[in-house]
Design a protein that fits this description.
Blueprint lengths: L20 H30 L3 H24 L12 E3 L4 H11 L1 H21 L1 H4 L5 H23 L11 H20 L3 H4 L1 H15 L6 H5 L17 H26 L8 H20 L5 E3 L1 H10 L4 H16 L1 H7 L4 H26 L4 H19 L9 H7 L2 H15 L28
Helix pairs in contact: 1-2, 1-3, 1-14, 1-16, 2-12, 2-14, 3-4, 4-11, 4-12, 6-11, 6-16, 6-17, 6-19, 7-9, 7-16, 9-16, 11-12, 11-13, 11-16, 13-16, 17-19
Protein name: Uracil-xanthine permease
InterPro entries: NCS2 (IPR006043), UacT-like (IPR017588), Xan_ur_permease (IPR006042)
Family: Belongs to the nucleobase:cation symporter-2 (NCS2) (TC 2.A.40) family.
């Protein structure tokens, strides 16, 4: 069990700690419970908007779960240079939903998966390979702002789930708000006023109690369980591949966003130890993102990237063990091979997950704030960078139609809150003189006071 150090939080279990097996399995289930609905929602939304059959939709959902699990295991334990050895749960990101729908309608799903196949490892692999060189451009001020915006712009997603899910007939109904509030209250109460296993499993307990209440009030539909098969085998090239230039350019932009999110999420996780990820961790994490996304496209899985909600779990519970996250990856992979089990999990109402998601994304934003405050002097220069970056990021998140006059590719690129915040922070921090600027600051190797946020080099 790890103790609190300067810049860190109180950790119940450190990076390489192994909780007892029963506790590890429950903690792993907690990670799965928080991310499974938003991760599979990407597949449901895209398949529904493109007009895929029920069988094709179910298959894509399975592949998202399977490759989320495989990528999570690789992230926790690594395969060669791939993986960060950090407790990062992987899943399919909402970043790619709009592009997948548009390209799927205009060019077909073969063009979607062809673009993912080409750009996944090509973009994130290149960024990971050269990250040591570009690392000085991502000091705690920049990465902290990325973590903050990831949390902030996901808050409306959490509210939508708490209200019952976008498009639900009972959206905003009192019973949905009540369920979400119940889950939130139980999770917060157990975390703040109890100790031991009750505190560590506070989120899972909230979801479980919320689900029982939902069943008691007749709000759960069990029919998907009976309709699902017990086992499904992955089918390579189910939709085929087409390589449309426009689709490839758009997904290349979005994988840049994904890389920025992953950098932010890795920083959010290691912030629990009061540090930034090492060069080796950054490189391995980005390799994992890109490679598993490309391989997953062969089997019709949408891009796999780090899941921000689960970064919040690490900071909320103080359980940083990568072995716990490895178990959650195995659980996800099993769910991906068994549609019936996955169907049972997805019967949990959106409102139940909404209470947990709201808590988690808030914790993500809070961990970003801590990363900035601990390692950045908030003088006038840095306050302006924070103000501009968050202002632009939240601006395009809340008012995306403001960019409707731009060309489609530019609207897609600049309409991403993470990319607007990251680019603003990156450009301002780089070209405005200051301690964290890579152009004006003393090089790390010549400095007698190295940045405390940067972990030890692995090279």
């Amino acid at each position: 069990m790890s103790n609190e150090t300067d810049g860190s939080i109180q950790l119940e279990y450190g990076l390489d700690d192994k909780p007892p097996w029963p506790k590890s399995v429950l903690l792993g289930l907690q990670h799965v419970a928080v991310m499974i609905v938003p991760a599979t929602a990407v597949a449901f939304i895209v398949a529904g908007d493109v007009g895929l059959s029920g069988a094709d939709t179910a298959y894509i959902v399975q592949m998202v779960l399977l490759f989320s699990g495989l990528a999570t295991v690789v992230q926790a334990y690594t395969v060669g240079p791939v993986g960060a050895r950090l407790p990062i749960v992987m899943g399919s990101s909402f970043t790619f939903v709009g592009a997948a729908v548009t390209i799927g309608i205009d060019y077909g799903m073969a063009a979607v998966f062809g673009a993912i196949l080409v750009t996944g490892f090509a973009v994130e692999g290149l960024i990971g390979w050269q990250f040591k060189r570009i690392k000085p451009f991502f000091p705690p001020l920049v990465t902290g702002l990325v973590v903050v915006i990831i949390g902030l712009y996901l808050i409306p997603v959490g509210m939508d789930y708490a209200a019952g899910g976008v498009g639900a007939d009972d959206y905003g109904a009192l019973h949905n708000i009540g369920l979400a509030a119940l889950v939130l209250a139980i999770a917060v109460g157990l975390n703040l006023f109890t100790r031991g296993i009750a505190r560590l499993l506070s989120i899972l307990a909230g979801i479980a109690i919320g689900y029982v209440v939902a069943v008691a009030f007749g709000l759960v539909d069990f029919s998907p369980i009976g309709e699902a098969a017990w086992v499904a085998v992955p089918s390579p090239t189910r939709f085929g591949f087409e390589f449309e230039p426009i689709a490839i350019v758009v997904f290349a932009f979005l994988f840049l966003v994904s890389a920025m999110e992953t950098v932010g999420d890795m920083s959010g996780v290691t912030a629990a130890e009061g540090r930034n990820p090492t060069d080796k961790e950054f490189r391995g994490g980005l390799f994992n993102d890109g490679l598993l996304s490309s391989v997953g496209a062969v089997f019709a899985a949408f891009p796999i990237t780090s899941f921000s909600q689960n970064v919040g779990i690490v900071n909320f519970t103080g359980v940083m063990s990568r072995h716990v996250v490895g178990i959650s990856g195995v659980i996800l992979a099993i769910l991906g091979l068994s549609p019936k089990v996955g169907a049972a999990v997805t019967t949990i109402p959106s409102a139940v997950f909404g209470g947990a998601v709201l808590l988690m994304v808030g914790m993500v934003a809070a961990s970003g704030v801590r990363l900035i405050v601990l390692h950045t002097d908030l003088d006038r220069r840095n306050m302006v960078i924070v103000a501009v970056s968050l202002g632009l990021g939240l601006g395009v998140a809340t008012t995306p139609e403001a960019l409707s006059g731009l060309p489609t590719a530019a609207e897609t690129f600049f309409g991403e809150p993470v990319i607007m915040t990251a680019l603003s922070a990156l450009l301002l921090n780089t070209f405005v003189p200051g301690e964290q600027s890579p152009l004006f600051d003393i090089p790390a190797e010549n400095s007698t006071d190295p940045d405390p946020a940067v972990g030890p080099s692995d090279d």
